[in-house]
Write a structure and sequence with these properties.
Structural class: alpha/beta
Radius of gyration: 23 Å
Shape: elongated
CATH topology of the largest domain: FAD/NAD(P)-binding domain
Distance between the termini: 40 Å
CATH architecture of the largest domain: 3-Layer(bba) Sandwich
Strand content: 25-35%
Strand order of the largest sheet: 6-3-2-10-21
Largest sheet: 5 strands, parallel
Helix content: 10-25%
CATH superfamily of the largest domain: FAD/NAD(P)-binding domain
Number of domains: 2
Number of strands: 22
């Protein structure tokens, strides 16, 4: 795609900060495009803790990560911005008139200003070696690596492939919701697990298999029926299964700030109160920025996004009012 439409601002990163920035910029009347490198919006909240309750976002006494992200997507879409996934931005060039953002897929995006809400990069989930040797590659590719859509596991026979605290957390969450939960761990222990969580796991109804590998999948009409596993003594067992989750750690693909000529210090962008980077017309917000008094909270990203959008708006049009209240914008 060679997109010749010129946008007022392009926001890189579709996590909670980027989603709120998208809404706020459209509320201010800006023409907005949001680019997310992953196949879904929500960033770390959706990838790491969609099932966990969040208690420190204003207006919500408690809300799950997934529910928060879904509400933020609905809010961001209110004024119909362009929101794209699977867009890894490789280069940002400035010809003095506008920025050209080039993605790894060959797409080009033109923008008068840019907001970086990328975090430190994008995380790719690891899978165990035995997983790649199994049949049904199309099915394996679709197996979740997080607990999004967690309701679908209710009253199901769930198998979790994991060697670390994430898999243990899933099992403890699902043990009273699923019909059965089984963990397949290729190692002899779980990594980075608190002893209390491990004790709860081993005393629960969850079936735990150490030093065990997947050896086969059994499907019927494109539905999982069972799995075959093999332990360290080469003993094979068949376990009934309807759903699988898998997580064996993460690999970080860092945001290419050097290629974008963005100055960083200790892998973060140092900004002042205006959220501006060292490149004129490029602003930043969220976990990636650093300044005196910085807090790494979801709510902090909202206020940083507001400042960055207002400053970007003023950058492209010095005549605009820098701040407007929503009650004024939506009046009548």
């Amino acid at each position: 795609m060679d997109n010749q439409d010129l946008f007022d601002i392009t926001i890189i990163g579709g996590g909670t900060t980027g989603l709120f920035a998208t809404y706020y910029a459209t509320m201010r009347g800006m023409k907005v495009k949001l680019l997310e490198s992953q196949s879904q919006f929500g960033g770390k909240v959706m990838q790491f803790f969609p099932e966990k309750l969040i208690y420190d976002v204003g207006g919500f006494p408690a809300i799950s990560g997934e529910d928060l992200v879904q509400q933020m997507i609905a809010q961001a879409e209110r004024h119909q911005p362009v929101m794209l996934t699977d867009q890894w931005v490789e280069t940002i060039d400035n010809d003095g008139k506008h920025f050209t953002l080039q993605t790894s897929s060959g797409d080009r995006h033109l923008s008068k200003s840019v907001l970086l809400a990328t975090g430190s990069g994008t995380f790719h989930t690891k899978r165990s070696d035995d997983w790649h040797a199994l049949p049904y590659p199309a099915f394996r590719k679709q197996v979740p690596t997080n607990l999004m859509n967690r309701e679908k596991y209710a009253d199901k026979k769930v198998v979790i492939a994991s060697n670390n605290k994430v898999g243990v957390g899933w099992a403890l969450y699902l043990k009273d919701k699923a019909e059965s939960v089984t963990i397949i761990n290729p190692d002899s222990s779980f990594h980075q697990v608190k002893q209390n969580d491990l004790d709860l796991l081993l005393k629960s109804s969850v079936q735990v298999h150490f030093q065990t590998a997947f050896t086969d999948l059994f499907m019927e009409n494109d539905r999982l029926q069972a799995i075959e596993i093999s332990n360290s003594e080469n003993e094979k067992h068949i376990i009934d299964a309807e759903e699988i989750l898998t997580f064996h750690g993460l690999e970080l693909e860092p945001t290419p700030f050097d290629k974008w000529e963005i100055e960083t210090r200790k892998a973060r962008i140092t900004v002042k109160g205006n959220m501006a980077t060292n490149v004129s017309g490029i602003f930043a917000a969220g976990d990636i920025v650093q300044y005196d008094g910085k807090t790494n909270l979801i709510a902090s990203g909202y206020t940083e996004a507001i400042t960055a959008i207002n400053k970007a708006h003023k950058f492209i049009d010095p005549t605009v009012t820098e701040q407007l209240y929503s009650t004024v914008i939506y009046r009548g």
